[in-house]
Amino acid sequence: MSYQLEYRHIKYFLAVAELLHFRKAADHLFISQPGLSRQIKDLENGLGIKLFDRHNRQVKLTRAGTYLKQELSKNLKNLDIIFNHAKLLAAGKQGQLKFGYVGSAMQHIIPHLLLLLKKDHPGVLFNLKEMDNQKQLDSLLNQDIDIGFVRLERIPRGLNQTAVLSEPFCLVLPIAHQINASNFKNMTQLKGESFILFDPEYSATYYEKVMGIFDDCGFAPLVSHNTIHSGSIYKLVENGFGVSIVPKSLKDLNNPNLKFIELNNIPQRTVLSAVWNKENNNPILTHIIDLIHKNIINKRC
């Protein structure tokens, strides 16, 4: 069996293993169903093992097939990354770095990193995608992104994490609100207000930390809206639907309809962390991690 044929067989096997349906897999691969069945049979014969059980039109992976799916999925992903990197090098590029991030990371941290990386590595392509925390973790584990910027205290095994920014929270109020920086004393002044907060799905630990602010003040907030986008929070606050609490880095000083009050006198802080997969071999990832430690963490400390 040639390498080219073996690679094609693996692609076919993974398509059937994922969909557990030969016709759907054949449609996905743009080949005929009999042709796909023949290729899978050739693979089984070549390996000397049975990969699928077929009963009454149902397709199930055998124990060996399940193992092969797990291992080949992981290694084929690495092979695709290697091929893509080779194509970029052939096109005169140094490589590609795929970022995932929560919105607040785009205010200062990521633009600063991109400028530093572009200075030393002008041929690197950047792919940027705003994602919630959990989607970033899933994408990092699958190596669909190279580095993520999250607000989480705990991450899965297999990932590395380093804190890049610890910051206070800010109150967000409509510009005409009676409370301002000069007369604000503590959160109990807002006990009767409706609050617009980031959804717990954005980050359960972040949400718990915000709830801790209210716990320390002795009241439970009336949460009228939850969202995962700061832009939505600001629009709701502008239009009188409530007030909010956000990380300091999300302050929008260019919005004339809002005012922000920093909560510097409370113990709660929110931490933005960089996260990456320990097994990611993208050479550009090493450079960005070095930049984080030399130019962001050191300055922060």
TrEMBL record:
GO terms for cellular component: protein-DNA complex. It comes from the Bacteria. SUPFAM superfamilies: Periplasmic binding protein-like II, Winged helix' DNA-binding domain. This is LysR family transcriptional regulator. Residues 5-62 form the HTH lysR-type domain. Keywords: DNA-binding, Transcription, Transcription regulation. GO terms for molecular function: DNA binding; DNA-binding transcription factor activity. PROSITE patterns: HTH_LYSR (PS50931). PANTHER family: HCA OPERON TRANSCRIPTIONAL ACTIVATOR HCAR, TRANSCRIPTIONAL DUAL REGULATOR HCAR-RELATED.
